[in-house]
Amino acid sequence: MLGKFFQKPEPNQGDRVPPGQYLATGFPVLTYGDTPEIRLEDWELEVWGCAQPVKLRWDDLMAMPQSDFTADFHCVTRWSKLDVQWRGVKVTDFMRAIDLDPKAVHVMQHCYGDYTTNLAIEDFLREENFFAHTLFGEPLPPDHGGPLRLVVPHLYAWKSGKWLKGLEFLDHEALGFWERNGYHKRGEPWAEERYAGRGLFL
């Protein structure tokens, strides 16, 4: 398997590839459950737990400032892909439309297919994070989370929710699907925060 689909990082890539990771020659797809198919005319993003709840349609998202991004992508299953090219909306630009409650300490990502994953507010609001709708110049494929996913480059990829449909701001910590099922509640690759403890995922 190693050599056809994955390769060891070069010595000069050590500052970009976290411990225990191999480089993917393609862009693997890992999904729990069925991949939802969402038409753009049906898609909406609901934001609540803020001072004024917001519901956005696709045209609302596309009217926001659009940016290009190149970011490394690290999966908890021990593969990484470098220099992934995306297009979308910076989280910091998106949040200009949201009246965030200063009591918010966490955000829960809600996704089509009833998947959830959590982020501390300081991890969510980082300058390098973005909502992606384009991958390598093409509309983001459903297998990779299209029409919209969050991308949080500094954490393992399960924290970058696919098929995003909602953001719930919380005044307390809450755990999402994988976090409730054995994964680390934060997921920082350089610290190898893969799992919460010994269990079925080890």
TrEMBL record:
Gene3D superfamilies named among the record's database cross-references: Oxidoreductase, molybdopterin-binding domain
Pfam families the UniProt entry points to: Oxidored_molyb
Domain Oxidoreductase molybdopterin-binding as annotated: residue spans: 33-178
Family annotation (InterPro entries): OxRdtase_Mopterin-bd_dom (IPR000572), OxRdtase_Mopterin-bd_sf (IPR036374)
Protein name in the entry: Sulfite oxidase-like oxidoreductase
Organism: Limnothrix redekei LRLZ20PSL1
